[in-house]
Design goal:
By secondary structure, the chain is α/β, with parallel strands linked by helices. 40% of the residues lie in helices and 13% in strands. Strands 1-9-8-5-4-2-3 form a 7-stranded mixed β-sheet, with helices on both faces. The chain is globular, with a radius of gyration of 21 Å.
């Protein structure tokens, strides 16, 4: 039995006719930029996240970058984030003009508040927790540190739409929340896209202009800015997908629960929710000291797995100027040698999920 790690096409088969219908309507209307479908999507997204505002942008990296610029991040300012995320978390800080500063993570892959506190300097202006794998970071502790040192908080929610921490969705804890709508995300565009959420009136008004050249209206520009708008066509497709998101999220959690039940008792670390969390399992990452052997065994049985991510950001060539080296973040570095992501998308069949678990157990039995 083949089990691909992802199968994007399967998701669209069930909603293809709806998508083609809305595409046909939009082609006739010509409403491609900042149209009514985008307004509807933004309102629905804000409601989903429990925030006052949401605004669509071109991609998740732009969501981070524009948010940092709106907070005044630039040369001489530092932003603390995790070294084990996708590189966009750190690169957005750099391209905004700031300096990425890393703090180590805990076993759940999210920022360790103790290490965040140690990383603060007089130049620190913000903390960027990453809700990695779709599991919420320890926001109570992070917000308390931010308040103590008068720091802004930008949540990187790229992998975590619908993730809940202590009864509240991510994206509404910090000053700004940033989401990706990349085709591999839990809520995905048929292309790229991103969203920024906030409860701050002034930041919202700034960002509405910042994503659209700094324009106050069609003819008046308040400041030089960027072109980073979510296409109305993508918003229309996303409105269809929003109606399925609850079902898709529940299926991810169902698959994760099955894995946890079947794989318990093996010599591995499983990603188990705490009572205060509701993870959405963008990735289902186990940790094993025999990771490479296990990956090869699963591949031989036609089960595709991935490693998210094999090289931490502070050890990337692009980050050399920051002066970090091997050993600076021992938890994150150790995890790169043990982590393995199993398939966990809603379109997996029960037979495929059972096959993954059975094959996994067979490896450890042998």
């Amino acid at each position: 039995m083949k089990v691909p790690f992802v199968n994007i096409g399967l998701q669209h088969r069930q909603i293809k006719s709806e998508i083609l219908g809305i595409v046909s309507e939009l082609l006739d209307s010509g409403q491609f930029i900042l149209g009514g479908d985008l307004v509807k999507f933004e309102q629905s997204f804000a409601q989903l996240c429990g925030t006052k505002y949401a605004l669509g942008v071109a991609n998740g990296t732009d969501a981070l970058f524009l948010s940092l610029k709106a907070l005044g991040i630039g040369p001489g300012y530092e932003v603390i984030t995790a070294p084990n995320s996708f590189l966009a978390s750190a690169s957005s800080i750099h391209i905004a003009g700031g300096t990425p500063v890393f703090a180590d993570v805990r076993e759940d892959f999210n920022l360790d508040p103790v290490q965040v506190r140690k990383a603060i300097t007089p130049r620190t202006r913000a903390i960027m927790p990453v809700h990695l794998t779709g599991r919420p970071a320890a926001m109570d502790d992070i917000l308390a540190i931010a308040k103590e040192f008068s720091l802004a908080v930008v949540e990187d929610c790229a992998q975590a739409i619908c993730s809940v921490y202590k009864g509240k969705p991510v994206g509404g804890f910090g000053d700004l929340g940033c989401f990706s709508l990349h085709p591999l995300k839990n809520l995905s565009a048929c292309g790229d896209g991103g969203v920024i959420t906030t409860n701050n009136d002034a930041l919202y008004e700034q960002l509405i202009k910042a994503r659209n050249h700094g324009l106050r209206n069609r003819d008046e520009c308040e400041f030089w800015s960027y072109n980073s708008r979510l296409d109305n066509l993508q918003a229309a497709i996303l409105n269809i997908k929003l109606g399925k998101l609850s079902e898709w999220t529940a299926r991810r959690r169902e698959i994760a629960a099955y894995y946890i039940e079947r794989l318990s008792g093996l010599n591995i670390i499983l990603p188990i929710d705490k009572p205060s969390e509701k993870a959405v399992y963008h990735t289902f990452i186990i940790q094993s000291g025999r990771r490479d052997e296990l990956k090869e065994f699963l591949a031989a049985m036609e089960i595709d797995t991935k490693i998210h991510y094999p090289v931490p950001i502070h050890l990337q060539v692009a980050a050399r100027y920051l002066g970090y080296g091997l050993g600076d973040f021992p938890v994150a570095e150790a995890q790169t040698g043990t982590i393995l992501s199993l398939p966990v998308y809603p379109e997996l069949t029960d037979l495929q999920v059972e096959y993954v678990a059975d094959t996994f157990r067979k490896f450890f039995k042998n």
